[in-house]
Write a structure and sequence with these properties.
The complex is a heterodimer. In chain A, 0% of the residues lie in helices and 52% in strands. By secondary structure, chain A is an all-beta fold. In chain A, strands 2, 6, 7, 8, 11, 12 and 13 form a seven-stranded mixed β-sheet that branches. In chain A, β11 and β12 form a beta hairpin. Chain A is globular and about 40 Å long. The N and C termini of chain A lie far apart (36 Å). By secondary structure, chain B is an all-beta fold. In chain B, β7 and β8 form a beta hairpin. The mean pLDDT of chain B is 96. Classes of the chains: A mainly beta, B mainly beta. At the A-B interface, β7 and β12 of A face β5 of B.
Chain lengths: 111, 114
């Protein structure tokens, strides 16, 4: 199974500053030149919402404050500038091989 | 618009089974695979498996082999997941989600308790 290691487990950020969340895959998630790595936001008591798909493509309606990047097997979700509405838990997920797997999540709070 | 409407919360006894439904609307049900995801209280997300309603093909996370059974009824555009031999470890919120997880059901809370 592809293991996704997310860090940090929790993150406190000042309003207007930058939040960076990392997700390291245990092996490649690349298919035909596209990294099948996706990011989700889950607010307390709500269902997950897709933010980024295929490494860096923003889902419809997702503001440009959210961006995805990759270096080797290390994927990054960046939120800049952070807004109060961004308080949530963020998950990465790989869509290359079964079983589909998620990272353990990063809880974003305001400092 | 695409909607996935799940059945309500369930309180079930250990050792029993439960069947959760996910009714799809706003798109062609038979053209997209439906996934099921488990989330235990305070925990992360775990993929259970998927079903392709067009032909009934399924794929399971090996961890849930024998625990979860996925089916789909094309006539009612509804996907189902049956969980068997329930234990406290099965207490969780279960989500259905359409292919690529762009659309999710609201979740069904299953509580296993005597």
């Amino acid at each position: 199974n592809i293991v996704l290691t997310q860090s940090p487990a929790s993150l406190a950020v000042i309003l207007g500053q930058k939040a960076t969340i990392s997700c390291t895959a245990s092996e490649s998630v690349n298919k035909f030149g596209i990294n099948l790595m996706h990011w989700y936001q889950q607010k307390p008591g709500q269902l997950p919402k897709i933010l980024i798909y295929n490494e860096f493509s923003r889902a419809p309606g997702i503001p440009a404050r959210f961006s995805g990047d990759e270096a080797e097997l290390n994927f990054t979700l960046t939120i800049e500038p952070v807004e109060a509405d961004d308080v949530a838990t963020y998950y990465c997920q790989q869509g290359l091989t079964f079983p589909l797997t998620f990272g353990a999540g990063t809880k974003l709070e305001l400092k | 618009q695409v909607q996935l409407q799940q059945s309500g919360a369930e309180l079930v006894k250990p050792g029993s089974s439960v069947k959760i439904s996910c009714k799809a609307s706003g798109y062609t049900f038979t053209s997209y695979d439906m996934h099921w995801i488990k989330q235990q209280p305070g925990n992360g997300l775990e993929w259970i498996g998927w079903i392709y309603p067009g032909n009934g093909n399924t794929k399971y996370n090996q961890k849930f082999n024998g625990k979860a059974t996925l089916t789909a009824d094309k006539s009612s555009s509804t996907a189902y997941m049956q969980l068997s031999s329930l234990t406290s470890e099965d207490s969780a919120v279960y989500f259905c989600a359409r292919r690529q997880f762009a659309y999710w059901g609201q979740g069904t809370l299953v509580t296993v308790s005597s």
